[in-house]
Fold this protein.
Amino acid sequence: MLVLAEDDAWFGLVDKPPVATVRERREAVLDDGDERYLDERASLAGTSLQLGSVVDRPLLAGTQPDLYRCFMDRTWRCMSEHGVVGLIHPESHFSEARAGGLRRQTYRRLHRHWQFSINMYLFSEISDKTHFGVSVYGQPREPSFLNASSLFQPSVADRSLDHDGSGPEPGIRDEDDNWDTRPHAGRIVRVDESVLANWAALIDEPGTPAVEARMLRPVDTASQRVLDKIAAAQRFDAVPFQWASGWHESADKAAGFFDARSAIADTVDDVILQGPHFSVANPFARQPNKDARNGRTRRLGSGGVGGAADPADQLPAGQADPGLHRRIPRWDGVPANRFWRLAWRRMADSSTVRILHAALLRQARCTSTVSSR
């Protein structure tokens, strides 16, 4: 996009334009010939192939090419026999379903892992929604490392290692509703293969090896004991149910199923419910602002929905397109929106109460929710 902006500034100024419009303007620019665009495409393709090469980086096979993962792999290769490496990096490989092989290698090398959240705005240039990890690696061995999660200040980890374990274990917030920065020995959870096995039993597919488990982030040892109890209980998939992921904001918009525009549809059958609509037990908690142009303005509206005197028949404003109902998935041959359904946001921050945001949708003519983020 930025390469095209050198010839047409529109590409650098517009915010989330319709896919069809982008395609038309791109073709208009390229009709005049632009070798820089072809050079950039070739460079990007070469970089992607090199980063994703299973020959150069067999440990990363099957994962999304990523510079920080490549750097992890390089530091492991350069490590001496008795050396250690400390890295600060993102943590997506701990939760990505396809990264089981990389997690196997990571867990075997980890000595310490501290997961930080920037909720206290310690770094002005980093969003408070950002999470990152400080990891100390050594040579491969049986998994056994110290783990601490939801740390809001760097000193909390060091002080927790020296703590005598007295007093109640801290949580996310303290009694005054401030971010809890109290050090405590209970913040440090020792993770071995048995803990990994419980994590896998709790959130991964049956049969997942313990060393490939997706990482959970217990705040303290009491939280881990709760996770152990839940892992031993019956899995949710043992209960018969049907589900649908709804619309995918990027892929389905690119396919031309709908555009990014807000409106109140004629019927609820033609409107897409989105994550910001939902709060606890309320499917219409928030309204997009009129003529919203981006994600922030689409989420600023509040309260009330319009369109009918009876609250049960009111319609939410959102991305609306006639004919959406024709593409609704079917359960046992019946459109999914003919059933009572439990709806929640696809992505939820497990460190906050937002993971509990869910709403019951009654049996009605209503489209699925967008699994946007």
The two ends are 22 Å apart (CA to CA).
